[in-house]
Amino acid sequence: MSRSGSFQFSRRTLLGTGLFAGTALLIKACDTTPTQTSAGGGTSGGGRSDLIVTTFAGSWEQLYRDVIVPAFQSAGGGSANLVTMVSLEQVAQLTAAPQNPPFDVALIDEGPFNAASKELFVPIPVEMISNYDQVAPQLLSPDGWAPTTGLQVIGLAYNPSEITTPPTSWEDLYDPQFRGRVSMQGMQTTQGTSVMVQLAKLRGGSESNIEPAFEALEQELKPNLAGLAANSGALATLFQQGEIALAPHDLNNVMALKARGVDIEWVAPQEGAIAMRPSQQIVANTTADLAAAAAFIDASLSLEVQTAMSQEPYNFLPVNRNVELTGLLAEKFGSTLDEALGNLVFLDWSQINPNRSEWIERFDQAIQL
User: Fold this and answer.
1) 81: part of which helix (H) or strand (E)?
2) Distance of alpha carbon 11 from the chain centroid
3) In the chain, what are the domains?
4) Closest CA relative to residue 269, chosen from 321, 315, 201
5) Best exposed site among 31, 141, 213, 296 by fewest CB in 10 Å?
6) How open is the CA angle 342-56-369, to the nearest 5 degrees?
7) d(Cα 298, Cα 126) in Å, to the nearest integer?
8) Residues near 14 by Cβ (< 8 Å), separated by ≥ 6?
9) What is the pTM (predicted TM-score) of this model?
10) Biggest alpha carbon distance in the chain?
11) Alpha-carbon distance 283 to 328, whole Å?
């Protein structure tokens, strides 16, 4: 697969790139025409209660359809039309049309939200969120933004038929026995960037210096890579087709694959699994009622919804500290949220984001995309 000694990937190198660019999939159309609201960025009453809400494809979309939207509707909050879209695309669309935004409540990963202009969003009206005080303090925003909605946890996914001794460390990705059998997401995704930062930290790097990870990429990881996945769905396809046996991946999507009969397992590396902290942010300058947007977030933080998200088939770590962890999550992380949080790696995106664009370009060049 090489040419003139250079590293080249096959057709599957960026499997699913079409799912990243223009990833918006309008699930149910909304027939209202947005107009600019008051200078406060949101309405306190009289606006639409039929919200347009973003989520991520896969387990998040399933959770929204099965649990969150019905809970919102049962509470009398209104209705919600779902749009699946990756975080960077959400920020791009909001930035392109800040006075005429295409959606009202956005589920956005921590990194892209940290980097986005805060004029695109409205601080959370805490007085309207009855479940706000139930969120673990370390998952609240110190700057007045919405808290984390639920935790996705990145560890190592592997094929147990091929890898009979489970991996134990992030550095198992470099093991020569897995030559040509490893994949990961690119750094344009939150997961891909998170993994590169973690690999750097294990060799003396930090959130602002991932040089050790780039050195490992060139010298140790690249020979093991069978291809690069553009997103979680593309990574799942590589596992389903048997083209890879080991990759960083999040627990919820791995368990969804296993439930569909894919030969796959998940383990938290001994150095700690990485926590991703997406949050539901209220978008500024929409025609939606602020109270309806707040009610949607409130429903998502409720004990009932948070308990459901912690169980099969979703397997997200909850943020409501009153949820007792059971089953798979208890097995992997402990029986309480505090215990689970103590076993996870949290990254500082305020240190990552200033260098991220440069790192993405360098990463792409290193693997000759």
Assistant:
1) strand 79-84
2) 25
3) 51-150+277-323 (3.40.190.10), 152-275+350-367 (3.40.190.10)
4) 201
5) 31
6) 95
7) 10
8) 186, 227, 228, 229, 230, 234, 369
9) 0.86
10) 65
11) 34
